[in-house]
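ESCALATION

Customer reports they have been waiting on this structure for their group meeting. Please prioritize. Original submission:
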Amino acid sequence: MNNQERGNIRWTVVALLFFATTINYIDRQILSLIKPILDDELGWTNTEFGLVNSAFQGAYGLSLLFFGWFVDRFGAKIGYAVSITFWSLAAMLHAAAGTLSGFAAARTALGLGEGGNFPAAIKSVTQWFPKSERAFATSIFNAGTNAGAIIAPAIVPVIALTWGWQWAFIGAGLLGLIWLFFWLPWFESPEKKRLSSQELNHIKSGQEEDELTKVTLPWTGLLKYRQTWAFIVPKFLTDPVWWFFLIWLPDFFNKRGLEIKSSWVHLVSIYTIVTILSIAGGWLTGYLMKKGWSVNKARKTGMLIFATCAVPILFVTSLSNWEVVILIGLAGAAHQAWSANLYTTVSDMFPATAVASVIGIGGMAGAIGGMLFPPFVGYIIDQNTTAGNADPAYSIIFTICAFAYLLSWGIMYVLTPDMRKVRE
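Update from on-call: job pushed to the front of the queue and completed.
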């Protein structure tokens, strides 16, 4: 098998993961994009809107915990299939909601299904890529979050205003079910694909044998490791920032005088910037490792750079809308590059048999942070908006977001100064 054939197989895996993640984030964004329509229909407050999103996050956290175990136990193929089936049906369930409690129930169901996406995706990358290529592969499929954030603002308002908001949810659910027809017949582990010994050796390069097959860590014992907490705490502190972007940016621009028909251009521009720059961020740490840097030095250096790039969002409330687009685009790209490398630290520090479980535990922590943050944001906006001016409220929120990454980097450095591997 030549290098081109090898690459075709590996990057087909990434392409499938990319499309699943794109669908995942389209599903997540629909509610935020139709918020102005539902504001009129339901008359909910910003705090109530935040609580509905918290219902999703709470369920998502529990789902991550479950799917982390489930994917390690039954594999990425089955885990992904179960997850996307559940979340696609839950997305379509939104079309039947017409009350605050109805949307809370639908968001809860969506959260319960979506928890399999990242544990299964990271598990798949761990199976199919050598260590030096994982962050780049992760950044590629993780760019699906940006693609979803680009596609959703461009098509959801059109669908909602033309055929009704219900059809946006139905269409997103159908996309997930269609994806299954590609995933189930194609995806297998490298061993089941009957690859050449050369290809298998390439995939396993840079890994010790016990990391791949022999070391089994009990799920209940993972919390005793500092390495686990080096993933948990940064997820708890930084995931809410991304959720804030997804949930509240349409409202932020709306309060700056841009209605849904106009703000989609700014939202699409933000996530286009995020997509392009975040892939470069995922490439950076792999490049440094190929230049001879240690895994620890390459990851920490790259993640410090990404953390610093988020700081300028301190100033967005005092800037023009297009200046805001640039700074939030930079911060969003920094988050995605940070996130790709943070996910990859799990496979750096844990054997493959525990990767999905640690991802699930840390993902639950991120979901808890994401569950607590939206009601807080809604409360801050409700309490600090006067005469229609929400800039003072958003200044508080953006300040919190600006420093979340530097704080997380410092905590991660203290917990794992050398990113030592867990072996028992």
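Sent to customer with the following note: Residues 1-6, 209-213 have pLDDT under 50 and may be disordered.
Escalation resolved.
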